Amino acid sequence: MSNPVFGNSDIFGDPRERARARKGSGSTSTMPAPYGQQAPYGVPADAASLNELYEAPSATTAQTGRMTYDDVIMKTGGLLALLVVVGAATWMIAPGLFFIGAIVGLGLGLVNAFKKTPSPALIIAYTVAQGVFLGGISAFYEAQYNGVVGQAVLATLAVFGTALFLFRSGKVRVTPKFTKFLMLALVGYVAYSLINVVLMLVGVGGGDYGPLRSGGLGIVVGLFAVGLASMSLIMDFDSIKRGVEQGAPAKFAWSAAFGLIVTLVWLYLELLRILSILRGD
Fold first, then answer.
1. If we measure between CA atoms, which residue out of 220, 236, 231, 74 comes closest to residue 162?
2. Across the chain, which distance is largest between two alpha carbons, in Å?
3. pTM, whole model, 2 decimals?
4. Domain hosting residue 269, numbered range
């Protein structure tokens, strides 16, 4: 998994891995009791009970307590709305708080990413912190390049919509090769970014974003990062699909929504950086 929110969760894992694990442990599937023998506990044994069970209405998701796509959409939409409201308030009132929002958001992001059970309160707190960070830094960019924030938002929505279309249409599928490439590319991207930060700290090179993320090279690297974020979105969609199909508990819709927010924030920042470089030139 590329997104640690999904990669560290057994809920969104690949069922083929679980099947191989069961096979290795020697466990076998449960078979119905032969005719004339007592049925397993909780299973009706007579024809009348079976017929009544067959004709009963299907259980709703509220009754089964399982995660649905609607759950994920509603929670993702709610978190995005909260992010926008907090971001707008920070932009107008105290944009200088963006640094605090970045530090708090990073800490809460790591905590949420590695928690086995989702915490709605911590996920909401992360969203608020990210709203403070994005609101403040967006105000800074907008002051330098008028209209760049609106362009970045539209570009983020366009990339998200394209990734969702490609996933839903089946034109792009998450395969082992896809996953392996993305993982290797992400490791390389993180290493490259860390080297750039170190060079900035020691005063090597120039540019607003460091010697390795400015000018034409910065645009190329930024486009590569946008591609990685798009692939991460597709993997996020695939993880959510598995979670729904495997009957994940409803509370894990919070984890799914949080994972999408993490990827969308990264995508927005990369697009904002690319557009600012283009506008600066």
1. 231
2. 82
3. 0.79
4. 65-280
